[in-house]
Specification:
24-stranded parallel β-sheet; 28 strands; 7% helix; globular
Length: 399
């Protein structure tokens, strides 16, 4: 009898616990894990601990800088919109050890935009990781980011700064001088543990995407109408990439790709050596005004970079592939290749080469770099030649 009563009491207790649990879930009550409170009307400040999860039903007015510090996480659900209102003083920066999780979908991308729909109206997204850079040869160096003045670089190639999926960045960026630029999305020493898939940088005032060292990999990147280069890398970036689409637009811009090893150390290690498979780059036309398109080159490879680029579609550029500096030219045909290229139309110079100048005031001697190139009439680039790839449907703009 005592055993039966004990069992009955146990059942009642368990039932009560289950009811309490269900009630809690039904009310969506969650204990905050961060001391930071996100104010949608005045979204700025430092997230120093725990996880901050935004509310997709709100539009967040980015009035200043958001900084996510070591040990903290910013999570952005599908369909969330963040609007920069404070010019380049408004940006989102992830410090070493911090994380950002952008959980967009094709049907509901996360959109980071500006209240005023013009290039350069907010500062963009900056991520700083602990992966190697080469500002000091050997890869163990650290440096300070151009935006937010955060430390980046280190020795952890697999460093994880979070996950970014289905994100559109609009109207960001600015160029203050040759050493300080705001891009759409800047990767500073970001490691390969970070996920980057389906991201667009649209109509920014400087580069769309720039990689400052690190080893982050990417899939499905779109860069349209950014007023400098659509893609840029330096400081020894090594990443594996699939499906890139870039296009100049809005009457201003430079290169499709601008690629360096390191400006102040052409042979510094680790040497920049990314792979890019499937890429389309659409230019402004070979006779576009020099005042607006001063560097009319689809792919500029210089300052000692390596790289393997395969399945390429190029259209409407004065020059297709431009290789500069002795250290870069030395890799042509071996660890620097652009293979299976389709020139669709209006690319009068397929390749150009220039050796390092003897003195700053003298031009470098021309070099034959044609060995960098192999052509293919069946290349598809990002998937659909110069047209919008199927993987871009539903979440991107500007095609």
């Amino acid at each position: 009898m005592k055993k039966s009563i004990l069992n009955f009491v146990t059942v009642i207790a368990l039932s009560g616990g289950l009811l309490t649990s269900c009630s809690s879930d039904d009310n969506n009550t969650k204990t905050p894990t961060s001391t930071f409170v996100a104010d949608a009307a005045n979204f700025k400040g430092t997230i120093a601990d725990g996880e901050v999860v935004l509310d997709a039903s709100k539009t967040y007015k980015l009035t200043g800088a958001i900084k996510v510090e070591n040990g903290a996480t910013l999570t952005i659900p599908a369909g969330t919109t963040i609007e920069g209102t404070g010019g380049t003083a408004s940006y989102i920066a992830i410090a070493q050890g911090g994380k950002i999780n952008v959980n967009g979908t094709a049907a509901k991308p996360v959109i980071m935009t500006a209240t005023v729909k013009e290039a350069g109206k907010w500062g963009g997204l900056v991520i700083c990781g602990k992966a190697p850079i080469n500002r000091v040869s050997g890869g163990a160096s650290t440096a300070t980011s151009e935006v937010a003045e955060l430390t980046y670089g280190g020795t952890n190639s697999a460093d994880n700064s979070g996950s970014i999926k289905y994100l559109r960045i609009e109207y960001a960026g600015a160029a203050f001088n040759s050493e300080k630029e705001f891009n759409g999305l800047s990767f500073f020493g970001v490691g390969s543990g970070t996920v980057v898939e389906n991201v667009e940088a649209y109509h920014g005032a400087d580069d769309g995407f720039e990689f400052f060292g690190g080893s982050v990999n990417t899939t499905n990147l779109i860069s349209i109408g950014n007023e400098d280069d659509q893609f840029d890398w330096t400081e020894g970036w090594n990443g594996t990439n699939t499906n890139w689409y870039g296009k100049l637009d809005f009457g201003k811009g430079n290169r499709g790709i601008e690629a360096d090893n390191f400006e102040f150390g052409y042979a510094f290690t680790p040497i920049a050596n990314p792979t890019i498979t499937n890429i389309s780059l659409v230019g402004p036309g070979s006779t576009a005004a020099v005042a607006n398109f001063a560097e009319n080159q689809a792919i500029k490879l210089r300052r000692g970079t390596k790289g393997i680029i395969t399945n390429v579609v190029l259209s409407a550029w004065a020059t297709g592939i431009d290789v500069e500096n002795d250290e870069t030219i030395a890799f042509v045909g071996t660890s620097l290749k652009v293979s299976n290229v389709l020139f669709v139309t209006d690319v009068p110079a397929k390749t150009k080469g220039k050796k390092t100048a003897v003195a700053p005031a003298t031009s470098g001697v021309s070099a034959d770099v044609s060995a960098i190139l192999t052509e293919s009439a069946t290349a598809t680039g990002a998937g659909n030649g110069v047209l919008a790839p199927t993987w871009a449907a539903g979440w991107s703009v500007g095609f």
